[in-house]
Amino acid sequence: MKNKILQLSAFMAFVVFTSCKNYAQNSGVAQKAYVGKEIGTGFDAKIDKLISQMTLEEKIGMLHGNSMFTSGGVKRLGIPELKMADGPLGVREEISRDNWSPAGLTNDFATYYPAGGGLAATWNVEMAHKFGTSLGEELRARDKDMLLSPAINIVRTPLGGRTYEYMSEDPFLNKKIAVPLIVGLQENDVMACVKHYAANNQETNRDFVDVQIDERTLREIYLPAFEASVKEGKAYSIMGAYNKFRGEYLCENDYMLNKILRDEWGFKGVVVSDWAAVHSTGKALKNGLDIEMGTPKPFNEFFLADKLIAAVKSGEVSETEINLHVKRILRTLFQVKAIDGKNRAKGSIATEAHYQDAYKIAAEAIVLLKNENNALPLKLDGVKSVAVIGNNATKKNALGGFGAGVKTKREVTPLEGLQNRLPSSIKINYAEGYLERYEEKNKGNLGNLTSTGPVTIDQLDPSKLQEALEAAKNSDVAIIFAGSNRDYETEASDRRDLKLPFGQEELIQKVLAVNPRTIVVMVAGAPFEVEEISKKTSALVWTWFNGSEGGNALADVLLGKVNPSGKLPWTMPKKLMDSPAHATNSFPGDKAVNYAEGILVGYRWFDTKKIEPLYPFGYGLSYTSFAFENAKANKAAYASGETISVSINVKNTGKTDGKEVVQLYASKSDSKVTRAAKELKGFKKVFVKSGSSQPVTIQVPVKELAYYDVASKKWIVEPGKYTLSLGNSSRDIKKEIIVNIK
Ligand code: BGC
């Protein structure tokens, strides 16, 4: 068993532009296409020479971990270890070489960036690119070669313990955020390691569960972001997941690693295993794995260590096979200038510039869900006191739970954000309100891969409740910070339900009853059942595990310095059982799990089955209002290789400048195959000044309208009529355009 429990305890910018960015000018709004730089083959002669000088043991030393986060190098030939760091939230603190305890360094403080769900909620590809470049610089400052990021598995169930780390339930949004992130990261002479490939959508039984997904669903929902990461982002590495897919572990899955990843997509980088996800020697290697990483045990006991040397000596594995994997690793090391690298990016870490990058992303990630009678932004005239209620007002989330976190010197909490931003004349009355408490006997559940998440104590402490009600009563305005945290939402276990933990529901209802001027802020990475609260409160704001500057960004949204522009990257159901994996009773399975809802993941299910969500995918309010005008396509009919260009004017009809996301969904009513009611096929975030208009153009390559045909193994664009719906959420469609495909 992977002993990562120790993780619980601790828990410029010199940019070298190596990728090419294409700028297409359309209707006044520049559109950037992010395309990564392919791994070069120019080093091949040098690589062949190095390989010819290496012993078998030296070669095999490169194919497995020789410490917790490095694989072996060959010093005498100038080949360095390949140095990895965990990543989605920022560069993880240095871990000891042979166990999970922190190395105890003083120079490994880093910027904590918003978690994946937050980044996706920006619906802003430029933010994703900034996220990548900023993080890449931090990685280089720590002298690493590879970041174990981004994590892009599809959010299949809202219960998923890693929903906060992942990006979306939608494959299109997922890939459009993942690719610029990868491109930005790799501009800094480092490798992205895109994880967890693939079909790793639950934590329950993740070590062995055999995931069954029909081929069309695999291609249309679970693979597109990985495919785009490889084909467009040119990711230099991929992490094989823990679980099985169609009977084979993903780190020894010939279909997924050899056939799809390499043969079909042309992947040239390295496949790294998840930590201790390898189960065989010759089979894993032949089926596509390049580097085995893992958790504490003597590194020579790994499957791709002494056992592999023996397998070569016995003739089971050929040395030519070994050379193939070594060559892949050497190529990536040359590519990121880890070998022979002149002018390799040096990076910078935890700089003010990086905190400001985190701030900008955080500010665009916050989603305004309800705002009755303009309760927000808070008007401070006459306000002398503000009650700040809830453990989440002070809870930090850079570290916590099971899995990678960031050791940081800056994490501005919501309370600190308000203290920083409110005028000093306003008194803040803080009350913890609820206590973060777990049942003692279930504490050990954290990280227990076969159980569901931690069991919380949901009774309020009477004195804490009283204190909160007093604070609310005696203040002009109350703000409750509720939701979850990274101990509750965590890798290695899924949540048991979508109820608010720690008695928060009761606390919120009672505070609302004593002070009607109460704002509810949810700090969480995944959906919760908040229908009752949403009905009663006049203002509901959603923020995330939102990075080093999260508290400042939140205060700026609450006070109106930032006009919110985040949109939900997943559906908020009214109740868990409305979600597809649960409505079809196909979660979490036992030894196997069958994704019975097929392609109808997320809003595809809710829209097709006509189930009303609490808040739909793509939804989020602004302090201003927008009108969509003059929607048109550039032609009436298109051939299959063409691109549909849809233009629309976004008019800011309110009094505040703001950003809006134009979302384009496609539907085909008379399709000969089952189709979702609608599918996201384009989006664009645009800034519009109050009273003015901005033209927006969204390009939809006709091939995006294709479905995957299992019989012919091809993407097929059916001819005929398609409806393109333009809106600012999946349920708020403002304009429809019909186009014909020839
Ligand atoms: C996680 C990976 C992570 C690795 C190393 C695994 O348990 O699934 O996402 O990169 O550990 O910490």
Automatic annotation (TrEMBL):
Keywords assigned: Carbohydrate metabolism, Glycosidase, Hydrolase, Signal
InterPro entries: Cellulose_deg_GH3 (IPR050288), Fn3-like (IPR026891), GH (IPR017853), Glyco_hydro_3_AS (IPR019800), Glyco_hydro_3_C (IPR002772), Glyco_hydro_3_C_sf (IPR036881), Glyco_hydro_3_N (IPR001764), Glyco_hydro_3_N_sf (IPR036962)
Coiled coil feature spans: none
Cross-referenced Gene3D superfamilies: Glycoside hydrolase family 3 C-terminal domain, Glycoside hydrolase, family 3, N-terminal domain, Immunoglobulins
Signal peptide location: 1-24
Gene Ontology molecular functions: beta-glucosidase activity
Residue span(s) of domain Fibronectin type III-like: 660-730
Domain of life: Bacteria
Biological processes annotated in GO: carbohydrate metabolic process
PANTHER family: BETA-GLUCOSIDASE (PTHR42715)
Family: Belongs to the glycosyl hydrolase 3 family.
This protein's name: Glycosyl hydrolase
Species annotation: Flavobacterium chungangense
